[in-house]
Amino acid sequence: MSSHREAPEISKDPVADSSDLYAFVTPDRPDSVTLIANYVPLQLPSGGPNFFEFGDDVRYEIHIDNDGDGHPDVTYRFEFTTEITNPNSFLYNTGPIESLDSKNWNRRQFYKLTRVTDGREHVLAHKLPCPPCNVGRLSIPKYNDLVRQATFSLSTGEKVFAGQRADGFFVDLGAIFDLGTLRPFQQLHVAGKNIFKAEGEPVNALDRMNVHSIAVQVPLSKVRRKANRYGAGDRASVIGVWTTASRQQVRILGDKVAADAAAGPWTQVSRLGNPLFNEVIVPMSKKDLWNTLPPSEDKRFARFVEQPELAALLPALYPDVFPNLDRLNKSKKARADLVAIMLTGIPSGLIDGFTNNTGDVQADMLRLNTAIRPSAKPDRFGVLGGDLAGYPNGRRVGDDVVSIALRAVAGVTVPLVDKTFTPDAAAGAVTPGLSAADVTAPFLRNFPFLGTPYDGFNNPPASAS
C-alpha cells in the first residue's frame, strides 16, 4: 500500500515501480494543479555507496484525461540520464556537495521534460538537474538549498522538480498483511482475540523511508479542456490523472566489451491511479496484466470493484462486528458506490455541492474537480469528513486514504446509492490508526509538498543508537 510492491513482477523492478500518486488544486496557487508521482519505494536512507536514483532506461509519465475516455489528453514525460564525474572513485561523493554542479558529487542525474498533447511532443526543458540523495550533514550541509536549486519555474508556466523526498504515505503494513490485523481493533480479530487483550499502538511501516518523486505544478488552463465555464458542477472542470512507467521491449545484456543496451518500442510496466486499486482490488493473478493496460481497459476489472474480496474478509476476520456488511455481501449486490468512487467518479446529486464524474467509461484514475478550491482547514478523511477538496476528489499528501478506503469498503458509502442500507457502527470507525502526524518528516506548505528526505547518517536517529 498505497502501491508499494503491489504486483509480483513490478516488485522485482523498483526503479519502475510507482508507489503513490497525488493530484490536488495547489493551496498557495489555486489557479494551478499539483501532480506528484513517487517511484523507487522503500528506500533505506543509508543504502550506499550506490544510493537510489531514477532509471535511465525508464520512461516516467504523468497523464491527464480531460474528456473522460480513459486516454491521455496531456502527458508530462520525464526521461533521465546519469553522469559520473570521477570514473576512478567508488564513492557517491568525495567531499561536501554545496551546489548542483559540485565537483565533489560523483554521480549526477539530469532529465528531459516533454509535454505531449494530441500526439504532438513539445520539449519543455533539456538536462534539468536532480538534487543528490540525502547522504548526511557532512556530505550535504544544506540539503534544502539544493532542493531550491533543483526546483524550476519554466517559461511555459509549469513548475517542476524531480528527486528524492521523504515517503509521506502512512500505513501499518506489518499489521495489515498479518491476516488483516488492525491494531486499534486487534482484540476483536478472529485470531487476535486469543492473543490480544486490548487494542494496540499502530506502526507506520514507511516512516523514515524515502522515495523518488517527479512533481509538476501546471496552470489549470493547460490541463482542462476548453469550455465556456468551469463551475463545480461542470464536467469540464474534472480531470483524471494517472502515472505510468515504461521500458523498451528488448534488453540486450552486454558481454566483456559491450555495455547493456535496450531497443524496440516502449511498453508500459507500471501504472497507478487511485491508491490501493491494484494493491487491494485486483487479484494477484491479474496484477501484472493490470500494470500493462491503459485505464480505458479497466472494465475488465469492474467485477472486482463490484464484489471486492476485502469486503468479504472484514466480517470473517472480525466476527459480529460487521453484520450489515455481511448481509450485503451475501446478497451479491454490486457495489455501485465503489464503482463510482474508483471507476467513473461520483455523479452529481449524491453529495451536496460535489461531483467528479467523468462519464460512463470505467477507468481507474484520480478524478479531480478543479473548480473546488483548496480547503482552509483540510480534513484528513477528505469527502467522508465533509472536505470536498480531499480524496476521492484527487488526493492530497495528508489525506488518510487507507482509512477512507477501508471505511468505504466496510459500507459507509453504500447509502449514497442505497438509502435502505445502514452501515455497521464499526464501519465509520475502522482505521489502522495512523495520520500525517505519524510521518516524521513534516510535509511542506508549498511545492514540492513532500518532506525533506531522511538522511543516511541519522537513520535510525542517532539518539536511538
Automatic annotation (TrEMBL):
Top-rank taxon: Bacteria
Pfam families given in the database record: DUF4331
Record protein name field: DUF4331 domain-containing protein
